[in-house]
Write a structure and sequence with these properties.
The protein has helices at 14-21, 27-35, 50-53, 59-72, 96-102, 150-166, 175-190, and strands at 79-87, 107-116, 119-121, 137-142. By secondary structure, the protein is α+β, with helices and mostly antiparallel strands.
Amino acid sequence: MNKLPNFPILNRGRISFEFLSKGLRDFHSAIDYVKDIPYGRTSRKRRLELVLIEHKGTCSTKHALLTELARENGHPDVQLMMGIYNMNGQNTFGVGKVLDEYGLEHLPEAHNYITYKQERFDFTRSINSDLSPFDSLVEETPIQPDQIGEFKQEYHRNYIKSWLKETKLRGRWNVDKIWRVREDCIRELSGIKKTVIWRD
């Protein structure tokens, strides 16, 4: 985290206001706070401040929130990213049991994180681990915070479609079935009390 810029949070927008209302005065303090928030979906993904209000968030909402905070305070070089990685029980603690139940070694997951000066930072979770989704990245692209909804889902589903064709799993599986397995994985992650942070 020390490789990321630290700057004072000024009251320059709704995201900055919410952090300031929590008593958080600089970017590093905001990161520490966000990474400790439990994993879970907010009621409305487009309202990024709900991560702070509802005290839960996913890789998408947490990193979009931090990106917006940086931009409000004059740091557009903190970039939101979307990467596709092969999610398994080793690089995503908690999903192995679900994948085993369906007889899958892994499945492609769309993951959000931030980059700064070509380094990746993932603040989804809060316990250090040597295992990283970054080790299994197959592609990545910069996105905007307002693309974590429909754009991300369409991109992800299109990738799954291609993956099924390449892996010859189309006979048994289709995009909707893989998506349901993914949803089961997310439910499992949402029930985990201890959380993990990965950094490249």
